[in-house]
Design goal:
Residues 26-46 are annotated as: Disordered. This protein is α+β, with helices and mostly antiparallel strands and 503 residues long. The chain has 14 helices and 18 strands. Strands 7-17-16 form a three-stranded antiparallel beta sheet. Strands 8-14-13 form a three-stranded antiparallel beta sheet. It binds S-adenosylmethionine (SAM).
Length: 503
C-alpha cells in the first residue's frame, strides 16, 4: 500500500477511480480490463495472487502466476476515506480530483441549512454530478447518504463546541484560575505499589492483553474519562472516516440481501471481496474490514516499549534489555490510574476521538435511526486504520516514471489530501525494495508490477520512503507500523553495517 498510515502510521499511498465497474481479468496485463471478470467466490483459483502466512510477517500476497513488469495485479476500492481538513474544498469527495482554485462547485452539506451555512460549512465537494451520484449510490440510498452527511455535520458542530469550551478554559487559566483538568501531572506511577494485583505485559498473551484493554475502555466509558478534549486534526479526520465505515455497516445490516462471507480460506474471500468491491458494490464490503489485522494489542505493546525506553534514558541502557525496568500494569485498572498514569495517557487520543464521534452520533441518532455507538465498534475501525490505511497523494504518480528510481517513491514531496482504508489491499507486506507499485487512479488503487515476478514469489509494496538508511527506515516503520522490517534489503544492510562495526 502506499500504505500511509494516516495520522498514525501507514498511510499507504495512491488510489483510483470508480463506477465504471471494471475488474481486471486474471492473467491480463495493465490496462486490459473485462466487464464482470471471472473472479468469483467459486473460482478463486483465477485470482492472480494467493494469501500465505509468512513467519514473522503475518499474511502476505504471493504471485499465483508469472507477471511481467507493468502487469496489473488487481485494483482495490476503499471502504471509507477522509479528506484532510485543509483540502476539503479542493478535493473531490468521490474521485479525489484536486483543484487548487477550489472550483469544485457541488457542496456536500447537511439538508435544511441556510444558504450561508451550506456555503461555509460544507463537509466536502464534488467535481461533477456523476461523482455526487456515485457517492450517494455507495451508501445504498439517498436517505442513507443524508444520514452519513448528518453525522459529518454533527462531528463538525461537536468539534466547534469543544473548541469554544477549550478556549474558555484557556481564558480562565490566563486569569489565574486553574482549568478543571486533573491531568497536569501525567505521573508514571506504576511500580509504586507493586502487589500481586499487577502484571508485566511482556508476559501476557495477546488475548490477555486484549481483555485488559477492554477493561480500560469499559472504565473510560463508565467513568467518562478524557471526555471533552478536542483531538488534533488528523484524529478528527479519523472520526469522519470511522463515521463513514460505520454508516456503511449500518446500511449493510439493514440490507437483508447482503451476502455473507462463506469461506475461511483467505485467498477465497480476498478474491470475493475484490470482485465485489470493483464490480458489484461501489465500496469495499464491510466484512473485508473484519479480516484485517486489528493492531490494537501491537499498538499497546509498541507504546509501552517506548515508555520503557523513555525511562531507560534516565538510568537504563537501551541496548541492554536487562537494564530496562519492566512496566507493571494493574490487573484491574481504576479510573484514577487511567487518568493519572503514563500508561493511562496512552489511551487519551483514542478516547477523545471516541467522545467526539459519540457526541456527534448522539445528535444524529434520533433523527437518523442509528444504533448507539459502542466503543468496541469504534475500536474495530480505529485500530485497523492504524498501519493499514493508504494515503491519498497528489499528484498521482504515473507508471512507469521517466526516471525508474521514481517508481519507488511513496508520496514523497506530494501533498497528502487524506487517507482511506482499502481492505482488499492490506495483505501486501512491506519491502524496502518493493516489486509492486501503487498507482492511484481517481478513487481506485491499481497495483502494478515494478519488475518481472515469478509464480510463488511474495509481492511487496513500500510503506513509505525507501531512500533513507536502514536505521532510519526501520525506526520509522517501527514507530508507524509496529514492526521491525525483515525485508531482504534491511537484513542485508544491517548485517553489512554490523560487520563494518566489527560486531
Ligand atoms: C498492512 S499489514 C500487512 C498484512 C499483514 N501481514 C497481515 O497479516 O494482515 C502490515 C503488517 O504486516 C507486517 N509486516 C509487513 N511488512 C513487514 C516486514 N517487511 N517485516 C516484518 N513485518 C512486516 C507487520 O506486522 C505490519 O504491521
Amino acid at each position: 500500500m502506499s500504505i500511509i498510515l494516516s495520522a498514525n502510521a501507514l498511510t499507504a499511498v495512491p488510489p483510483g477511480k470508480l463506477s465504471d465497474a471494471r475488474v481486471i481479468a486474471p492473467g491480463t496485463s495493465s490496462g486490459q480490463t473485462a466487464q464482470g471478470a471471472s473472479v468469483t467466490n467459486d473460482d478463486s483459483e483465477n485470482f492472480p495472487v494467493r494469501i500465505h502466512h509468512v513467519p514473522g510477517r503475518g499474511r502476505g500476497f504471493f504471485a499465483d502466476r508469472d507477471f511481467t513488469r507493468g502487469d496489473e495485479v488487481f485494483q482495490a476500492m476503499p471502504l471509507a476515506c477522509a479528506i484532510s481538513e485543509d483540502w476539503v474544498g479542493n478535493t473531490c469527495a468521490w474521485c479525489f480530483k484536486f483543484d487548487d482554485r477550489r472550483k469544485h462547485h457541488l457542496k456536500v452539506s447537511a439538508p435544511g441549512g441556510t444558504k450561508h451555512h451550506q456555503a461555509c460549512h460544507y463537509k466536502g465537494a464534488f467535481c461533477s454530478e456523476q461523482c455526487q451520484e456515485n457517492a450517494i449510490a455507495s451508501h445504498g440510498s439517498r436517505h442513507a447518504w443524508q444520514r452519513y452527511v448528518a453525522v459529518l455535520d454533527s462531528i463538525e458542530a461537536e468539534a466547534q463546541r469543544l473548541k469554544a469550551t477549550a478556549s474558555k478554559g484557556m481564558t480562565k487559566a490566563a486569569k489565574g484560575k486553574k482549568p478543571k483538568s486533573c491531568e497536569a501531572s501525567l505521573v508514571f506511577s506504576e511500580g509504586k505499589s507493586l502487589t500481586d494485583d499487577v502484571f508485566n505485559p511482556d508476559d501476557a498473551s495477546d488475548d490477555q492483553l486484549a481483555q485488559w484493554i477492554m477493561l480500560v475502555w469499559d472504565s473510560i466509558i463508565e467513568d467518562r474519562i478524557f471526555i471533552g478534549g478536542l483531538p488534533d486534526s488528523p484524529y478528527r479526520e479519523i472520526a469522519r472516516l470511522i463515521a463513514g465505515a460505520l454508516c456503511h455497516r449500518s446500511n449493510k445490516r439493514s440490507n437483508s440481501n447482503s451476502k455473507p462471507v462463506c469461506s475461511s480460506d483467505p485467498t477465497m474471500w480476498a478474491a470475493d471481496m475484490v470482485r465485489r468491491s470493483v464490480a458489484a458494490e461501489p465500496v469495499a464490503p464491510w466484512e473485508s474490514l473484519e479480516h484485517m489485522q486489528p493492531n490494537e494489542v501491537n499498538w499497546l505493546r509498541s507504546e509501552l516499549y517506548s515508555l520503557q525506553l523513555t525511562r531507560s534514558s534516565e538510568g537504563g541502557d537501551v541496548s541492554n534489555p536487562a537494564t530496562i525496568a519492566p512496566i507493571h500494569l494493574p490487573l484491574v485498572p481504576t479510573a484514577a490510574q487511567i487518568r493519572l498514569t503514563g500508561w493511562g495517557a496512552l489511551f487519551r487520543v483514542a478516547a477523545e476521538t471516541f467522545w467526539l464521534l459519540n457526541g456527534a452520533w448522539q445528535q444524529a441518532i434520533e433523527a437518523q435511526q442509528l444504533p448507539a455507538l459502542e466503543h468496541a465498534d469504534f475500536r474495530d475501525v480505529y485500530y485497523r486504520e492504524m498501519a493499514n490505511s493508504f494515503g491519498i497523494w497528489d499528484p498521482n504518480d504515473p507508471f512507469p516514471s521517466e526516471n525508474p528510481a521514481d517508481d519507488q517513491r511513496d508520496g514523497e514531496e506530494h501533498e497528502m489530501l487524506g487517507f482511506a482504508i482499502y481492505p482488499t489491499a492490506v495483505y501486501f507486506n512491506h519491502s524496502c525494495a518493493p516489486n509492486v507499485f501503487k498507482a492511484r487512479e481517481g478513487r481506485q488503487i491499481r497495483f502494478v508490477c515494478l519488475h518481472d515476478i515469478r509464480q510463488g514469489e511474495e509481492m511487496f509494496i513500500s510503506y513509505g520512503s525507501v531512500f533513507e538508511d536502514v536505521g532510519e527506515r526501520r525506526e520509522r516503520l517501527q514507530q508507524h507500523y509496529f514492526f521491525v522490517c525483515t525485508c531482504d534489503r534491511c537484513v542485508a544492510e544491517s548485517t553489512a553495517y554490523l560487520a563494518q562495526d566489527g560486531c
